[in-house]
Amino acid sequence: MSAPAPPTDRALTVEVEQTHPMPLRGGLRCEAGELLALVGPSGAGKTSLMRVLAGLMRPQRGRVTVGGECWCDTGRGIFLRPQQRHVGVVFQNYALMPHLDAAGNVALSLLDRPRAERLPRARRWLDHVGLSAEQQARRPAALSGGQQQRVAVARALAREPRLLLLDEPFSAVDQMSRQALYRLLADLRQDLAIPIVLVTHDLDEARLLADRLVVIDGGQVLQQGTPAQIHTQPRNARVADLVGIQNRFQGRWLGPA
């Protein structure tokens, strides 16, 4: 008997509704190879939603699927732990181990591999993100912010994830390093056929990098669409405020002319 064909739909789909520990309500879909940006003010629920995707928080009610595989379905009692989800996460503060060099940090994500494979694979990923052999041997304290970010990206990708989550990944680096990291992400996307979710409060960054935006505020998904759609057709005044639209006017709809 032949093995079953792999699923052709590798998209991420999410539906969530909860009131505690913080309100979250709404759904989204991110196609394989697409970069979806969650945008909204501080406290909007962006990182909480990302924690649901990563398996770091169990929602009161919700469903998360990736590539047709159910990672969470509260109605059926399904909740895969983070290590079961094959998620790559780049945290805002990088979360690197200070006592390990760059290669050792990336190798930490490869503990499921035979010991002899871990460092060679880690070094290949660090080569891929543009770190020299000398930089790969440094500990995080001896690396710049941009270099630490590259280590974090290599560590996330070394797991060969089915979903990549980026939590405010560029906020701690200077503008020059940020531009270089934008180019790195654009280059990496050419080889990544997985959904990518970016959490950011920087609207210009979201417009530059994302294929589609999800506007969230107060834990509720307000609107989804391409950057052009959301900026030309905001669903309501709150969305217009959040995306920086200033030319708003009050009026009364009298019907078609």
Please tell me about this protein's structure:
The protein is 32% helix and 23% strand. The protein is of the alpha/beta class. The strands form two sheets. Strands 7-8-9-3-10-11 form a six-stranded mixed beta sheet, sandwiched between helices. A five-stranded antiparallel beta sheet has the order 2-1-4-5-6, covered by helices on one side. The termini are far apart. Residues 1-7 have low confidence and may be disordered.
Layout of secondary structure:
Layout: E1 12-18, E2 24-30, E3 35-39, H1 46-54, E4 61-66, E5 69-73, E6 78-79, E7 87-90, H2 102-107, H3 115-128, H4 133-136, H5 145-158, E8 163-167, H6 175-189, E9 196-200, H7 203-209, E10 212-217, E11 220-225, H8 227-232, H9 237-242
Parallel strand pairs: 3-9, 3-10, 7-8, 8-9
Antiparallel strand pairs: 1-2, 1-4, 4-5, 5-6, 10-11
Helix pairs in contact: 3-5, 5-6
